[in-house]
Specification:
Four Helix Bundle (Hemerythrin (Met), subunit A), mainly alpha, about 180 residues
Length: about 180
């Protein structure tokens, strides 16, 4: 399985560049766009994530370079028949609240990406994809979670994250059937 980019390094670069989205959200938007249309325009995604691009801003250009690697990484992972796709979320060392919020933002970003990829009417999608997108909508707008029982909350977050990960792969397969996987693992 291909290792995902260093989340911390990418997040720091994006913050320094005043990106309009977090690294997690940027990955989610890219994944949604690519699931809807594997040929989705990387430039459109870059402009959305970073807003106005200033060619004289070295920090922004470095963040765009790293984010571009993330975009290409997402494209490869979504087409990997070995199901090596990973959500770019804060690791377990971060607070539970931050991780829950990031997953909610991830789901919202994916939905945004699906729309940007050209799918605005979910009724036209296969039933499984429609149901998953409805679930992602609910996860994204769930509001506050009861985090009192940390062990149960950790387990629930892990299960929901895996559900989202596998859901993205299913949506991608239904909308963009895997054409090839050149990696042998």
């Amino acid at each position: 399985m291909e290792k995902i980019l260093d989340t911390f390094k990418l997040e720091q670069a994006m913050q320094k560049a005043d990106a309009d989205y977090s690294a997690s959200e940027a990955q989610a938007i890219a994944c949604g766009m690519l699931a809807a249309n594997i040929s989705a325009d990387k430039i459109t995604w870059t402009q959305l994530v970073f807003g106005e691009i200033n060619a004289d801003n070295g920090q922004q250009l470095e963040a765009i370079k790293l984010a571009g690697e993330l975009y290409e990484h997402c494209k490869r992972q979504l087409q990997d028949s070995n199901l090596g796709f990973e959500l770019l979320l804060p690791d377990e060392n971060e607070s539970l609240l931050l991780r829950v919020t990031s997953l909610q933002e991830w789901c919202n970003g994916f939905l945004l990406g699906i729309g940007l990829g050209g799918i605005n009417d979910h009724k036209t999608l296969p039933e499984d994809s429609r149901e998953l997108l409805a679930d992602f909508t609910e996860i994204g707008r769930s509001g506050d979670f009861d985090l009192e029982d940390e062990t149960a909350s950790e387990e629930a977050l892990e299960e929901i994250s895996e559900y989202v990960r596998m859901g993205v792969l299913l949506i991608n397969e239904e909308l963009q059937p895997i054409k090839q996987s050149t990696r042998i693992h």
